[in-house]
Amino acid sequence: MLNPRHDAMRDHPFRRLAELIANVTPRSNEPHVMLSVGEPQGQPPPLLAETLARNSHLWNRYPLPQGTAELRQAAKAWLDRRYHLPPAMVDPEKHVVPVPGTREPLFMTGLIAVPEEKNGQRPAVLIPNPAYHIYTGAALASQGEAVYLPVTREAGFLPDLAAIDTQLLERTALMYLCSPSNPQGAIASRDYLKSAVQLARRYDFWLAVDECYCELYDKEPPPGVLEACRDLGGGMERVIVFHSLSKRSSAPGLRSGFLVGDASFIQRYILMFSYGGTPLALPVQAASAALWNDEEHVQETRALYRANFAVSEQVLGRHPGYFRPEAGMFLWLEVGDSPAVTKRLWAETGIKTLPGAYMAKPGPDGTNPGAPYLRIALVYDPATTESALRRMAKAL
Ligand SMILES: Cc1ncc(COP(=O)(O)O)c(C=O)c1O
Predict the structure, then answer these.
(1) Ligand 1 centre from 212 Cα, in Å?
(2) From the first residue on, what is the mean pLDDT of each consecutive set of 10 residues in the chain (396 residues)?
(3) What pLDDT was estimated at residue 143?
(4) Residue 181 CA: which ligand 1 atom is closest?
(5) Dihedral sign of CA atoms 290, 294, 300, 306 in order
């Protein structure tokens, strides 16, 4: 027998996408372009391969779950620079742990943060709707009930914190937020993040903030939840933040990120991880430290996404469903029936996108807030992006 709680994991968006287009062969002779996955198609900076090579004598060593002091220090130094934190706020020994990308820890957080009951009730895991599907996976694998918070264009594509019912907050064990958000590229303000931290502390739940797109911004650097913590006195109680090199350094294959936040959670994470996690190999940790210490390649990466957004504005700016996101790597384009449009675009143009319907769940009234949108990943160079978007625009 298999655990039936996990059955709903079949709703994985890429599984559903594969099913949707399984019997469709594109009629176009032009090259197929995958705008469905947020996988950077550019190469990471040479610094990565050079540092791996310089540390190749370390492949024979077992890495420890808490990571190397060098990588934890590089993460702390980057946080202090990026978010203007006082030096005493983040202690790399207590508050930071390297992780093999952020997907795994986002998932494991459900196992750590959700008790069997809270205030005598079934615990709730609050998840923006739509969102990255791993948050739902975390709720399904834990004891919790996934409760979806509607995210609308009118409310700036972020959950309305003031609208969450008090009874729900009392049984909430964990809340996920993502800023800049996948899929919409919306940025939570510092005030919004402060309210979220205050809510987590008042109602005694864990606030998991996924900031893996924080370096891909158009104009101003998005605020981070650690700035909110700083403004509230400098403690990180109840807050866990997820940072990744996958987007910042175009290195999803490296599987490298880190967690920072509440010391008690980080220590519990290291304990769990020492049973069921795979620490980063030592050459990977050395390369990760070098990447966090370098800003030059990140400026180039940002310029690439900025150029892609500019191209998208030229090509699709007049489409009634278009808006230019503030950050991230995705367009969130309103098109109508997103699975039908995805299938038609694949058939007619050989361009694959992700139906927004598959990134969201139907609300209590049966409406799926993602249903009218396509998620389009602008992960190629600007010339490829432009040609793919022109092919799409004709078909739309
Ligand atoms: C919102 C969000 N969080 C986390 C991740 C996980 O990235 P990684 O595991 O490569 O750090 C992704 C990947 O696409 C994502 O979109």
Answers:
(1) 6
(2) 90 97 94 96 97 98 97 98 98 98 98 97 98 97 95 92 98 98 98 98 98 96 98 98 98 98 98 95 98 98 98 97 97 98 97 98 94 98 97 94
(3) 87
(4) 1
(5) positive
Ligand 1 atom 15, closest CA: 132
CA gap 375, 338 in Å, rounded: 9
Distance CA 267, CA 265 (A): 5
E strands along 348-396, which residues? 351-352, 354-355, 373-377
Q: In the chain, what are the domain boundaries?
A: 7-43+297-395, 58-293
The tokens of 148 are what? 């979806």
Does 58-293 match 7-43+297-395 at the fold level? no
What class, spelled out in words, does domain 7-43+297-395 have in CATH?
Answer: alpha beta
Q: What is the pLDDT at residue 116?
A: 95
179 CB within 6 A, ligand 1: no
* Helix ranges (DSSP H) in 121-189: 134-141, 166-170
Rounded to 5 degrees, φ, ψ at 108 are -65, -25
The answer for residues whose C-beta is within 8 angstroms of residue 295's C-beta and 6 or more apart is none
Angle separating helix axes 46-54 and 282-293, nearest 10 degrees: 140
Q: Report, in angstroms and rounded to the nearest whole number, the Rg of the chain calculated over CA atoms.
A: 21
Residue 331 near residue 279 (C-beta atoms within 8 A): no
Give which of 246, 284, 267 is closest to 101, Cα–Cα.
246
The confidence score (pLDDT) of residue 200 equals: 98
Closest C-alpha residue for ligand 1 atom 12: 103
| CA distances in angstroms from 24 to 264, 346, 353, 396, listed in the order given | 50, 8, 14, 18
Classify strands 351-352 and 33-34 as parallel, antiparallel or unpaired. Answer: parallel
Fold category of 58-293 in CATH: Aspartate Aminotransferase; domain 2 (3.40.640)
250 lines ligand 1 (CB under 6 A): no
